[in-house]
Every structure is written in C-alpha cells, then in structure tokens.
Amino acid sequence: MTPEAPVATETVLLRQYSIKPGHWPAFLALWRQVVPLRRRHGFHVLFALKDEANNLFTWAVSHDGDIQAAMDRYYADPERAALEVIGEHIAEFKVTTVAREPIP
C-alpha cells in the first residue's frame, strides 16, 4: 500500500465542538444535513469523530481553492441559514486552520 500524496494547495479546517449533554441526537441529525451542503460548496469532509462520554465532536473539512470565498457562499446559502439552529446544541466550539501531514 502506498501512502497518500500530500495536497499542496489544500486548506483544512479542524472543527471541534462541545455538545450540550442530551443534545447528541438532535445535533447529529442537523450535522448530517450540513455535510452534503458543505460538499455542494466544494468542501471535502475528511473525517468526523464523536466522543459521547466527554461530549466532544471533532471533524475536518478541506477545500482545494479559495476557502474564504467558498465559506462566504456556503454561509450565504439559504439552506445553511435554515440549519443555523445547530448552534443550539453546541456549548462551545473552536475552528482552526491546520495543515495535513503525509503519513509515511
């Protein structure tokens, strides 16, 4: 098996959420609607991890081009505006721009 080739122009956003206790089902139902919308705006969903015991949800999205322009289009989409209620299920969040490191 060969390692993945690095993508030189890719920007990755690491999104980390603290989910309010008891809000997992509602959060995940909305997040599952967010994913296809992100993809329609050119984002790639790299992974998603849930740690229900600690109420943590971490996922990463990337974009091959102008990520700010893609984010502007994504957040201006009326379908995304309808999903704004997802924030009611998140106690805290952190979004950082990170770089992918090729795995040898």
Could you walk me through the main structural features you see in this protein, from its secondary elements to its overall organization?
The protein has a domain of 67 residues: Alpha-Beta Plaits, CATH 3.30.70. The chain is built from three helices and four strands, in the order E-H-E-E-H-H-E. The longest helix has 17 residues. With 104 residues, the chain is α+β, with helices and mostly antiparallel strands. The mean pLDDT is 91. The radius of gyration is 15 Å and the shape is globular. A four-stranded antiparallel sheet has the order 2-3-1-4, with helices on one face. Helices cover 31% and strands 34% of the residues.
Summarize the structure.
This protein has 104 residues and is an alpha+beta fold. The protein has 3 helices and 4 strands, in the order E-H-E-E-H-H-E.
Give the number of helices: 3
Task: Give the spatial strand order of the biggest sheet.
Answer: 2-3-1-4
Helix content: 25-40%
Report how far apart the termini are. Answer: 11 Å
Layout of strands and helices, then pairs:
Layout: E1 11-19, H1 24-40, E2 43-51, E3 56-63, H2 67-76, H3 78-82, E4 90-98
Antiparallel strand pairs: 1-3, 1-4, 2-3
Features:
104 residues; alpha+beta; Alpha-Beta Plaits; 4-stranded antiparallel β-sheet; 3 helices
